[in-house]
Amino acid sequence: MEWKNWASVAFSKRNLLPSSSGIYIIIDANDCVWYVGQAANLKNRWMGRTHHRYPQLIRSNRKLCHRIYWQEFPSYSLDERERYYIDLFRPELNGCKVKKYLPKQPQVEREIKRLLKVLNKLTTLFPVIRSVVVGEYEDSDGTTCFLICRNINDEQIIYNSMRKRYASEVRKAWSIYKYYCGKDEQLYTQAWVSTYNLGGYRFEFIVVDWEFFKYLENNRNARTRYIGEAELNEVKVKALKDFSIFDELSLAEESTYTNSEGKKSLTSVAYINYRRPILRCIVPTI
Fold first, then answer.
1. How would residue 107 be classed by pLDDT, with cut points 50, 70 and 90?
2. Angle between helices 107-118 and 155-162 (to 10 degrees)
3. Fewest Cβ atoms closer than 10 Å to its Cβ: which of 136, 157, 229, 257?
């Protein structure tokens, strides 16, 4: 979350902004990025009530405690820097109609909460366990990433979210990355990871072999040893508290299938093992 290193003022004290040119970002108390903008004179841009987003933000300020973060940039670079930070932070309000009120919760935040709730809801098909948060790690750019194992039967849920109608911000929040997991690119095809970006956080969804879930479903002792409960984005989730389950099960890092070029496909387990040295459990320690 690069903006955390920027200078900032409370929304109610925006008169203290400098008169220099730069990029500003509106953040709430929950670290949600609401808006990214540019100004040739930051103080003048927010003087009085002239900003077009002022009515929305002032109504919600008492509850959300907005702050204005800013970074000085020369005027000639503002267009480029603004586009960069909009693409990086995916703010809720950029590109949408100006209204009097903010939504109670940003659309992109509502969607990740919905997905986490669905993937932890037990059904006849998933009577014991449906998904597991493997752990969290910090990427090289400072982004906090959560690695989540899901069942292949829930593929459609992720697919539908990626193509959600009337929800352009949700569609923009999705990306698909490919990783060779430290393997030889001449011998392997990449592992694919579906990611959902929310401000300075990234949620990575991977499909794990059915043996993983079957083992936990049929083995109560294993569930007691390996699975705990945690809270992620205010949603109760199942999460690993011991990564050694992957050693015990010895799940394959590569498939037996070879493509036309003679390369083997990497599995999600290869990606888990690739991230494992920096993974941390999210289950609270007693």
1. confident
2. 170
3. 257
